[in-house]
Design brief:
Elements (H helix, E strand, L loop, with lengths): L1 H23 L5 H12 L4 H5 L7 H10 L12 E9 L4 E9 L5 E11 L2 E5 L11 E3 L1
Antiparallel strand pairs: 1-2, 2-3, 3-4, 3-5
Length: 139
């Protein structure tokens, strides 16, 4: 009985460790990297957003960083994403779609390309084709 109790206590600690690691590591799935990236981008945390994109996408984030000064994001520390769906295109590419609720009360539909490199998922902001990485805001 004592061994069984030790086993369950160990199992609980193992599961707690895994769940904490998953929360800190958004690179494990297309859905989690999309969520982490969008939350960083739309709250003006551009340096954080750069961590979640492919190296080829960093210049796009740099452009956003210069185009949208920090005062544009004052009071905007949280956005919400709803109905995140993932369409796995290949083993290393996926398209994530979601509804974004912005700080200013507006809502938009977003499509995000994600790529898997070295076992981790990253957002790709390559030149968008029709329907890709476009945010349309409803009034």
């Amino acid at each position: 009985m004592k061994r069984l109790n030790i086993f369950f206590v160990g199992l609980i600690f193992l599961l707690a460790g895994i769940s904490c690691d998953t929360a800190k590591n958004p690179y494990h799935s297309p859905k989690s990297i999309t969520k982490a990236f969008s939350e960083s981008l739309y709250t003006g945390h551009f340096d954080e957003a750069k961590k979640y994109v492919t190296p080829e996408s960093v210049p796009v984030i740099n452009f956003f960083q210069h185009a949208f000064p920090p005062e544009k994001f004052e009071g905007c520390d949280h956005i919400t994403l709803d109905e995140i769906t993932v369409k796995q295109l290949t083993d290393s590419t996926a398209l994530c779609k979601c509804i974004v609720h912005l700080c200013n009360g507006k809502t938009g539909n977003e499509s995000t390309n994600v790529l898997k490199r070295d076992g981790k998922w990253y957002v790709s902001l390559r030149q968008a084709k029709e329907g890709e990485r476009q945010l349309t805001i409803d009034n």
